[in-house]
């Protein structure tokens, strides 16, 4: 990464972290994926049950590989869910909502410290509000937006089409690359949650990484 680009990401990342802290979230900025992995692992006790929300970021940081090798009880890791039907996944996803730790990313993070996320089922969103003892979100600096309007636009224009493609969904955006009038049963934008401040129901930590990660 060019030094000027790295500087810009670090500057925005640290500003977002301070805003998150003002809004009651536990937040930290780290320079790279390796440090992000170490930071997240330090938050998870040995033997903990861990639930997952779909996240390309967790894969790209290498965190999934580290967890797979560790002393943890993984409830619904991505490599297990991929081999299951939607009906088979639901019981595991319900278990994941009361795990010791829930791991995922965020679709967008505003510079005033709000988290914006859209989901198909809601299993990724619910643990950000209530359920697990602790939820940890890992986000690259590419997820940072200047405003709530930009965050919502990022979800529909930047994150949703490639995520729908990645998940082999039969939606208009997989053909056009653009968000449109989607009434497909495969639609992944069914519910949107904006966390203006940390809820009372879960300890939520955000690890902002000085790299471009996820979608």
Low-confidence stretches: none
Shape by Cα distribution: globular
Beta-strand residue percentage? 15-25%
**SSE pattern:** HEHEHHEHHEEEEEHHEE
- What is the overall pLDDT average? 97
Tally of discrete structural domains? 1
The helical percent reads: 25-40%
Which secondary-structure class do the elements indicate? alpha/beta
Q: Evaluate the radius of gyration.
A: 16 Å
Task: Describe it.
By secondary structure, the protein is of the alpha/beta class. It has one domain: NagB/RpiA/CoA transferase-like (Rossmann fold). Helices cover 38% and strands 23% of the residues. It has helices at residues 3-22, 33-42, 56-61, 63-69, 78-81, 86-96, 148-166, 172-176, and strands at 26-30, 49-52, 73-74, 101-104, 108-110, 115-119, 130-140, 144-145, 191-195, 201-209. A six-stranded parallel beta sheet has the order 1-10-7-4-2-3. The chain has a four-stranded mixed beta sheet with strand order 8-5-6-9, sandwiched between helices. A hairpin with a 4-residue loop joins strand 5 (108-110) and strand 6 (115-119). The radius of gyration is 16 Å and the shape is globular. The model has no long low-confidence stretch (mean pLDDT 97).
List keywords for this structure.
single chain; 215 residues; six-stranded parallel beta sheet; four-stranded mixed beta sheet; 8 helices; 10 strands; globular
Fold topology:
Blueprint: H1 3-22, E1 26-30, H2 33-42, E2 49-52, H3 56-61, H4 63-69, E3 73-74, H5 78-81, H6 86-96, E4 101-104, E5 108-110, E6 115-119, E7 130-140, E8 144-145, H7 148-166, H8 172-176, E9 191-195, E10 201-209
Parallel strand pairs: 1-10, 2-3, 2-4, 4-7, 5-8, 7-10
Antiparallel strand pairs: 5-6, 6-9
């Amino acid at each position: 990464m060019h030094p000027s680009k790295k500087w810009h990401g670090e500057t925005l990342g640290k500003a977002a972290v301070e805003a998150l802290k003002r809004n009651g979230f536990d937040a930290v900025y780290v320079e790279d994926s390796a440090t992000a992995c170490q930071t997240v692992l330090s938050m998870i006790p040995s033997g903990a049950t861990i639930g997952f929300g779909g996240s390309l970021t967790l894969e790209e940081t290498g965190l999934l590989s580290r967890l797979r090798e560790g002393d943890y009880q993984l409830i619904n890791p991505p490599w297990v869910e991929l081999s299951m039907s939607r009906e088979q996944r639901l019981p595991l996803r319900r278990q994941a909502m009361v795990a010791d730790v829930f791991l995922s990313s965020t679709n967008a993070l505003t510079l005033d410290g709000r988290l914006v996320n859209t989901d198909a089922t809601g299993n990724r969103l619910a643990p950000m509000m209530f359920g697990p003892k602790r939820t940890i979100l890992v986000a690259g600096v590419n997820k940072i937006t200047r405003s709530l309007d930009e965050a919502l636009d990022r979800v529909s224009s930047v994150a949703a089409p490639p995520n729908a493609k990645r998940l082999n969904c039969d939606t208009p955006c997989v053909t056009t690359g653009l968000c449109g009038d989607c009434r497909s049963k495969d639609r992944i934008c069914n519910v949107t949650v904006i966390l203006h401040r940390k809820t009372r129901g879960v300890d939520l930590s955000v690890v902002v990484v000085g790299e471009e990660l996820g979608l």
